[in-house]
Amino acid sequence: MNVGSITQNATLGINNGLNQANSASQKLASSEQLSGEKSDQETTKELIALQQAEQQVQISARVAQTAGDVIGSIIDIRA
């Protein structure tokens, strides 16, 4: 098992989630949204994207934490 690769993938997942959250937030805060020009369906779509981004960041953070725990266990075993 390559823990470094797992950590890199977790970091990539966090970054992707943050980018998705940023994009959804910008769309929700757009002038069209604030003026009421966007439909409720479009608003709902962006809110769902924001929730998905939050979940992606949370799950990726858990993966990174688990990888760190595995590294700690390996160090403890070898010490």
Would you mind describing this structure in some detail?
With 79 residues, the chain is an all-alpha fold. The chain has one domain (3-78). The chain contains three helices and no strands. α1 runs antiparallel to α3. The chain is rod-shaped and about 65 Å long. 8% of the residues are buried.
Low-confidence stretches: none
Strand content: under 5%
N-to-C series of helices and strands: HHH
Determine the structural class based on helices, strands and strand pairing.
mainly alpha
Mean pLDDT: 90
- Number of helical stretches of at least 4 residues: 3
Tell me, briefly, the overall form. Answer: rod-shaped
Major β-sheet profile: none
How many structural domains are formed by the residues?
Answer: 1
Compute the number of strand runs: 0
Portion of residues within helices: over 70%
Give the radius of gyration.
18 Å
What is the terminal-to-terminal distance? 20 Å
For the structure shown, list the relevant keywords:
single chain; 79 residues; mainly alpha
Q: What is the topology?
A:
Layout: H1 3-28, H2 31-34, H3 40-78
Helix pairs in contact: 1-3
How would you sum up this structure in a few lines?
The protein is built from 3 helices and no strands. The protein is mainly alpha-helical and 79 residues long.
